[in-house]
């Protein structure tokens, strides 16, 4: 795996902000109160993490769909079908309360990492892709774990 280019790395780090912010507000009541008063209650705690996590899994389906365009033959059908899984998972599995939705998002991001590995193995992603996704998934799952077990 080669070095992650600067722009995808920076954008990836920025994309982690809602997960980190949500975890921070869950762990600090004063920050939660301040954030709710400044941004509204939807943008703190589990609400921001769960909504953003759902959107993020859907976005990642789109990225995998883009990688699927490089596949040929039978692999093409397989990769397009696999690319739809994170979006469908987010749509079907994030209902219910924050604990079940958080747990299902953790499973969704873990499953997404397996798909990232498969697409990388099939040489459909940039060489640095898996390195970025390993880091992003670790931070995302750690932050969501605070919703579930915090």
Automatic annotation (TrEMBL):
Would you indicate the residue range of the signal peptide?
A: none
Membrane spanning residue stretches: 46-67, 74-93, 99-120, 132-149
Keyword flag Magnesium:
no
Q: Name one Pfam family in it.
A: DUF3429
Superkingdom of source: Bacteria
Q: Which UniProt keywords apply?
A: Membrane, Transmembrane, Transmembrane helix
Q: What is this protein called?
A: DUF3429 domain-containing protein
What organism is the protein native to? Pontibaca salina
């Amino acid at each position: 795996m080669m070095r992650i280019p600067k722009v995808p790395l920076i954008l990836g780090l920025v994309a982690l902000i809602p997960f980190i912010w949500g975890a921070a507000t869950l762990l600090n009541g004063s920050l939660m109160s301040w954030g709710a008063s400044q941004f509204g209650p939807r943008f703190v705690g589990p609400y921001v993490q769960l909504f953003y996590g759902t959107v993020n899994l859907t976005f990642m389906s789109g990225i995998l769909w883009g990688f699927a365009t490089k596949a040929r033959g039978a692999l093409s059908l397989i990769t397009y079908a696999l690319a739809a899984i994170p979006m469908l998972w987010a749509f079907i599995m994030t209902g219910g309360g924050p604990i079940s939705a958080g747990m299902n998002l953790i499973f969704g991001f873990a499953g997404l990492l397996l798909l990232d590995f498969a697409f990388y193995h099939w040489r459909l992603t940039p060489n640095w892709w898996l390195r970025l996704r390993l880091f992003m998934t670790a931070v995302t799952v750690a932050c969501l774990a605070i919703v579930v077990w915090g």
